[in-house]
Amino acid sequence: MHPVLLRQLRKIGLPGLEAPPDRAQWAKFLERVDHCYQQSDDDRYLLERSMSLSSDELRRLYDELKASTESQLAESRDQLRTLIDSISEGLAWLDVEGRIRLLNPAGCIMLGVMEQDIADHTLFELLGCESPAAPAHERFEKVVRKGENWRDDNGTFHRVGLGKHPFAVSFQLNPMYAGSRIIGAVMIFRDISRQREQDAKIKLWATVFQTTEEGVIITNADGVIIAVNASFTSITGYREDEALGRTPKFLQSGRQAPSFYQALWERLGIVGYWQGELYNQRKGGEIYPQLMSINAVRGEGGKPAYYVAVFSDISHIKRSEARLEYLAHHDPLTGLPNRLHFEDLLGKAMDRRQADPALAGQVALMFLDVDRFKDINDSLGHHKGDLLLKNLARRLSALLDPSDVIARQGGDDFVVMAAQIRSIEEVEERAGRILEALKKPVVVGGQAVFVSCSLGISIAPRDGRDPATLYKNADTALFQAKRNGGNSYEFFSEALSQRARERFELETRLRHAIDREEFILYYQPQFRASDKRLVGVEALIRWESPGFGLVPPGKFIPLAEETRLIDTIGVWVLNEACAQARAWRDLGFAPFRMAVNLSSYQFQSGKIVDQVRLALDQSGLDPRCLELELTESALMHEPERAMEILRELRGLGVHLAIDDFGTGYSSLNYLKLFDVDALKIDSSFIRDIPHDKNDEHIARAVIALARSFGLRVVAEGVETAEQIEFLLKEGCDELQGFYFSRPVPAMELMNLLCSPGYDLTHAIPT
Amino acid sequence: MRISLHYASSASGDSDNTGSKHWDVPPDTELDSPNTLALLFWDPDQDGISSFLEGVDSLFPQSLVAGCSTAGEIFDGELREGGVSLALVRFDSSRIKAASALVAKGSDSYEAARAIAGELQADDLKAVFVLSDGLSVNGSELARGFNEIFGDAVVVTGGLAADGARFRHTWTLINGAPAEQQVVAVGLYGDSIEVRYGSKGGWDIFGPDRRVTRSQGNVLYELDGRPALELYKQYLGDKAGELPAAGLLFPLALRDDKGRGERVVRTILAVDESEQSITFAGDIPLGSMTTLMRANFDRLITGAAEAGEMAGLDTPAKGEALSIAISCVGRRLVLGERTEEEIEASLDVLPPGTRQTGFYSYGELSPLTSGACDLHNQTMTLTLIYEI
Lengths: 766, 388
Known about the structure:
Shape of chain A: elongated
Structural class of chain A: alpha+beta
Number of helices of chain A: 27
Strand content of chain A: 15-25%
Mean pLDDT of chain A: 86
Oligomer: heterodimer
Low-confidence stretches of chain A: 760-766
Number of domains of chain A: 5
Distance between the termini of chain B: 9 Å
Strand order of the largest sheet of chain A: 18-19-21-22-23-24-25-26
Number of domains of chain B: 2
Radius of gyration of chain A: 62 Å
Number of strands of chain A: 27
Distance between the termini of chain A: 180 Å
Radius of gyration of chain B: 20 Å
Number of strands of chain B: 26
Shape of chain B: globular
Mean pLDDT of chain B: 89
Helix content of chain B: 10-25%
CATH class of the largest domain in chain A: Alpha Beta
Structural class of chain B: alpha+beta
Largest interface: A-B, 21 and 19 residues
């Protein structure tokens, strides 16, 4: 029984059906059962009603929703279509077979197809690979089977229409899903033909930019470098990274004035273009010429946005120009200036002097002609003749002063301009140097050739105020020198020529004097003041020339020094004096000092120590018997070096004396340092004693000085008894002069030595 | 604690309500004490009920007498009607205290709850059992007022008084004659007292979601731009004349405006033909989503059993306990002849020795899972009280 029924029975007091109910209970029971049915009906009514209503409501809602969804769908489909149609890229939907199912207008135009015809075409047709074996099929399979993307920025499509014309394309395929299933692919593509062309053009331009031989600099409007090419680096030496971000100022050489750049910018500002030559500096420091053109590239508003400078290194052009210039002005054989150039230089030099008379020096012009060159040329041949000329040109160039100009006139004619001549001697010296230098044999083709030359000299303004006159007169002088037999020079002025001839002759003779044994030594005795005993002799050179008689030293010693003959002469004197002293010793005379004068040149030659040692060795003379006399000027020329030489000479054991003391520097400081034995008071201070009190003071001071240093004092040029008395009184050690004896030959001195008045015992202090 | 249950019905046993009442078992006045709670639940549609209730009060001068009108009394596993149910509970070592407040209109509810809570508040306050007027109150606001004071420290349970299926007048009582528009509450104090609760519905939603397009507080005017009353009338069809009681057949499930969150159930208290409005037992916020609900017999009964299981969890296996079952009048309306099944189900799961009292209400109060009290509709809500 239903539990509700059981409950109902219980409630009315009928717990079971064992006994029949009374009427009242039965009525109550029926009432409850009826109520229950009633309620059940009500429940069913409400349930059914609510189900039906609810169902209607839901149906209505569904319809509304459907309608609204469909309209929304249509709307968004339209929007999507508009969107797709307005895309400038091609957009296509491909099915899994690669067939085109949808193509937007941009895509239609690119592919040259009407939208209604697209279904006939496939992706593979576009790609031009319809064979199923083509890799494109495999690639596409990956998109529609595996969901991969396919992108190609460098593809080629073939138009469907328009003769299947191919075009460059960039495309991308993405799988298209319906839920998790791939139903095809979406392809976006773009015609990149123009971009490709542009790229190619840019590449071409970049290649031109990079490979052009001209250097290129691109700057921004502020002049800051934003690009340079490879040639920039090869020309300037600066790497790209060293140039970028800087202004081109660092390339400047400083050769152009600021005004140059100012003008450049002005022109760039006005016409936007500049071209010209300028000098810039390479990274390595070398300054070089450039031919440069600069263009202003105008941007918005016509203002310069960039500057492009293209330049080439024109060093080689400049060098060629310089070479041409050089060839035009120089003799091709010798490389010396040619006549044209020389005349120009000469004219300028003369003009300068004319314009400014205060300018030191005069202009001398020397014509030089090789003696008998025609004969040499004929015998050697032209080629060797040319070599000879080249050789001579080199020699001439080497021996002249830097300020001199030498040029080849043509043939064997040379011309020299000395523009800073201060004396005739200077000209003579140069001329002598030239003659001497050219006399040395020239080796041409393994053969020694001896040549000489002749010089004709004119000096401005005396011999001409213009180049033409000077030329003419130098030529005249040359003619004279030739007529005199060559190997000589002639001045245009007769007087100068005379003097020059004499000097030349003297020099020639002097050269031969040694060989011909024309020199002779005279000896002047030196006496001890205290007892008038002979303690030494001073060797003095004399020149007995066959043609000139006895030539005084004052005349030939300067010439010998000038011509460096002094070196040879000095050695001869030293050897001769030592040999003589030794000879006297061998003859049994008691030893006495042999004083030998050394010239400044000889002392500074660097050979003196060896020369002295050799002279002593050869003669076997006791070094203590040799005294070398040096002038103050010889010592003071290079005091440090002089001290060194003196020390070395002292090492040999010889005596050292300072000659002519008082006439030179007389530096007490150095006197202290120079290690010498004696001072010789110059005869000029002795001569006027006792009349000149000033000389007396000097002599007295020198003597006192020498004594304070512990030096021996020798007075030269002693001629009177009063002088002797003075010197004795002042404490002078030794005396020399005509009062006792003039310089005499060796034989005569021996006579003196043998005479009773000369006691030579203990002549040398031991 | 000692419990004694009594039921008074018309002397003749008739339901004509004219005769005098007599107790099935005379109330044991020995139980009268300051610690005695006398709970009265009565059918308000009885002549002289007010003086009868006063009489009961005078029988227990020391006890705390509280109660309310119902839509059916629950009495130890049975549904009783047309009489008065009395549950006497004398606590051995627990203290009780009563408080009350008036609610003339829904908006008074919040302040009324706060006043009562303030009065009952004490350190050893364990639980508060609330009986409120069932028509003038806004149960949601009432719950909010209690929560405001107690937080989740005090268990608040109870229900809204009912007036059968009439929805005209509801009464509550506290130590005297019953009164309308009143909220009464009993505080239970001490370490010995234990109060458990459980609450379950068992309704199914059906039909489309409907948005509240016009409402104010607990008064609903329109759903989806259409008068709510019209919708209810359409669904009730022939039964529309039985509104508002018939409205209980279609409670409203309520969610927030996004259609999210826990569904709360709202039951109809009144309808207003002139305004075309429906008044619900709790708030119907504007914009919230609603769905009609309908009964599922089996689930209603199962729900009642589950509420019992929830309340009975962890209780001692024996000893006396009082279960106050408050079930919604809507459930009774639907269950009809099967109503007692849910009453039995809710008692069967509790330990032996548990006595049952309670009533069919216009709304239930009990804590949510969060612990805070809230108004429920269409549920079986149990409050289990025992001493340890």
